[in-house]
Amino acid sequence: MSSKAQIIEHSKREAARAAVDKNVNLDVKVFGVGSGSTIVYAFERLVEMHQQGLVRKDLICIPTSYQARTLIQKSGIRCADLDEFPNVDVTIDGGDEVDHNLNAIKGGGAAHMREKAVAKASAKMVIVAGKIIPFVSFLFHEINMYRLCFTDFRKNSEFLGTQWTNGVPVEVIPFASEVVLQAILKLSPKSNPFSKFGVQTDGKDMFEFDVPKVEMRAAVKKAGPVVTDNGNLILDANFGKIYNPQLLELCLKQITGVVEVGLFSGVAKEAWFGNEDGTVSVKHV
Ligand SMILES: O=C[C@H](O)[C@H](O)[C@H](O)COP(=O)(O)O
């Protein structure tokens, strides 16, 4: 690993640990465990705190994926399903990209369906984003440092789809995957099918591209597509910059055959960032 990659990995770990330290205590009874590489660091800290008596001995952890379930089961902390404990105190999860309102793209690991179910059942959802690049300038600007140095990056940090260019993950039932793909291609950047229901837009286009770029996610080390923990497929839909994530999420979710969309609009209340320089930043909404 290069030294720059090591620094980023270190800051990602620090951000994950700080998020746990700040949000998990003896009052937390039910904790949602996100998925991905960053969450491994967060869960490592949770296990330490459990061993040190800093969290409840009878803490219940709700997994958001097969990966999270395995982590919990190996830890000795009680693992339970969401339908047993539908009221979660705090969930901590990773993120692929986060904008200045803490809207996020998630699902780089195809886990966003269960992640969103657990996040929405949580009194508080916290995102830890290891990949700070889209946000660096904004945060530095906020604390009034390096304002000039990072001015060029600020514009880019405003919109989802700027740094995470793999597209928005859309989980679809296999039966309708081609139909959904065609429907996404027909979404127009200027459309607001919800205006008749009173869903307002800011008058700007919904996303950048005239026509989205959509492809089915292919598996690695297996021929064929990625199959999710729910037995479904993933379409990665690249819209370019996303100007209105709330509306795009609604538009995608109304397509029959879509199970869940990796846009988390207005879900996270707090985000922790591991910065490129090894420091950690936090933002609340
Ligand atoms: O499906 C995967 C999840 O949404 C992850 O939380 C997200 O992709 C971030 O993953 P990582 O922590 O590996 O960057």
UniProtKB/TrEMBL annotation:
Keyword Protein transport set for record: no
E.C. designation(s): 5.3.1.6
Matches recorded under Gene3D superfamilies: 3.30.70.260, 3.40.50.1360
GO CC terms in record: cytoplasm
Pathway assignment: Carbohydrate degradation; pentose phosphate pathway; D-ribose 5-phosphate from D-ribulose 5-phosphate (non-oxidative stage): step 1/1
The keyword Isomerase is annotated on this UniProt entry: yes
GO terms (BP aspect): D-ribose metabolic process; pentose-phosphate shunt, non-oxidative branch
Top EC class for this record: isomerase
GO molecular function, one term: ribose-5-phosphate isomerase activity
Top-level taxonomic group: Eukaryota
Catalytic activity: aldehydo-D-ribose 5-phosphate = D-ribulose 5-phosphate
Keywords attached to this entry: Isomerase
Family: Belongs to the ribose 5-phosphate isomerase family.
Descriptive protein name: Ribose-5-phosphate isomerase
Species of origin: Smittium mucronatum
